[in-house]
Amino acid sequence: MNVEKHSEFRIAGKKAGKKAKNGSGKKPEKMSRKDYEEELEKLQVELCHLQDWVRETGARIIIAFEGRDTAGKGGLIRRLTERVSPRTFRIVALSAPTERERTKLFLQRYIGHFPAAGEVVIFDRSWYNRAGVERVMGYASEKEVENFLANVSGFEQWLVDQGIILIKFWLEVGKDEQERRFKARIEDPLRQWKLSPMDVKSFSRWYDYSRARDAMFKATSHKAAPWHVLRSDDKKRARLNGIRHLLNLIPYERVKKPKVHLPKRSNKDSYDDKLEVSKVKLVPEHF
What average pLDDT does this structure show over 7-29? Predict the structure, then answer.
């Protein structure tokens, strides 16, 4: 394999970096769209290099994203995957289990989505539903939750021992910011689909979720798969910081590939291939 050694990825922009490094405790200035997009493009280029390495080496990577409702998991995952192949980066966002799935071992429905060689699987909520929403909303008994917390670290250690790279992110959104985002979803028809009856019901249980989070961290942040907490009140900075940190957690290398040259088009068997519009229906050009 022809590669260049990967070192820690440092790309904080001049303006973005100065604004983000604010030791006074004050809220940093809002990042401009231009600065954000410039930094995001650099990170997405690096994600393409990561993709090449995953394909070349047959690496298997699992990334689990957790956090309260409106924490920004979906937006981060979209930016993470919008420039790479969905055949390499697969997103798994499971709906509520069916009656049949409820009779299976709890982890069984997740294991079926785990990566084969050369794949990155991203869980938009994962098996940690048991420690979070299922616990808070009463969908799992305390005995089931405690059993999960006592055993899941051993399961994750086994995954890592099998050569899987397992990365767990928790997006931490503040109380006031979460309320602002909920209200935005209520008012904006483009966001209303994000607001489920479950979200509304869970909104009032802030401190129950905080206690569940704390218990989860205490029981399941271990050396093989620690929790990486990403502050997400500022969506732009959270996306940049999250992708950058992810890249630094994976020991990938840049794969050197030969330069591609387009071949000459063959004129063999050429014909007048102008579209016969009478045979099809053209889409009206309104724009």
Answer: 54
- By the 8 A CB rule, do 8 and 248 touch? yes
Is 245:187 a contact under the CB 8 Å cutoff? no
Structural domain includes residue 50: yes
Asked whether residue 273 is assigned to any structural domain, the reply reads no
Q: Retrieve residue 272's tokens.
A: 């007048």
Beta 3-4 vs 254-255: how paired, if at all? antiparallel
**Section 195-219 average pLDDT:** 93
> How many domains are there within the chain?
1
Q: What is the pLDDT of residue 197?
A: 83
Core vs surface per residue 180-198: b (16+ CB within 10 A) or e: ebbeebeeeeeeeeebeee
The answer, as to whether pTM is greater than 0.85, is yes
Rounded Cα distance, 160 and 180, in Å: 39
* Amino acid identity at 126: S
Name the pLDDT band for 9 (thresholds 50, 70, 90). Answer: low
264 in a domain, yes or no? no
**82/143 Cα distance (integer angstroms):** 40
pLDDT at 48 > cutoff 60: yes
CB 127 within 8 A of CB 152: yes
Q: Is residue 261 part of a domain?
A: no
Half-sphere exposure of 15 (CA within 13 A, CB side): 11
- The most distant pair of C-alpha atoms in the chain lies apart, rounded to whole Å, by 73
Q: Quick one: pLDDT at residue 13?
A: 44
Q: How many residues does the chain have?
A: 287
Distances (CA, A) of 251 to 61, 83, 91, 265: 12, 20, 22, 41
Range of the domain at 94: 3-18+29-250
Tokens of 193: 């689909």
Q: What is the CATH number of the domain that holds 103?
A: 3.40.50.300
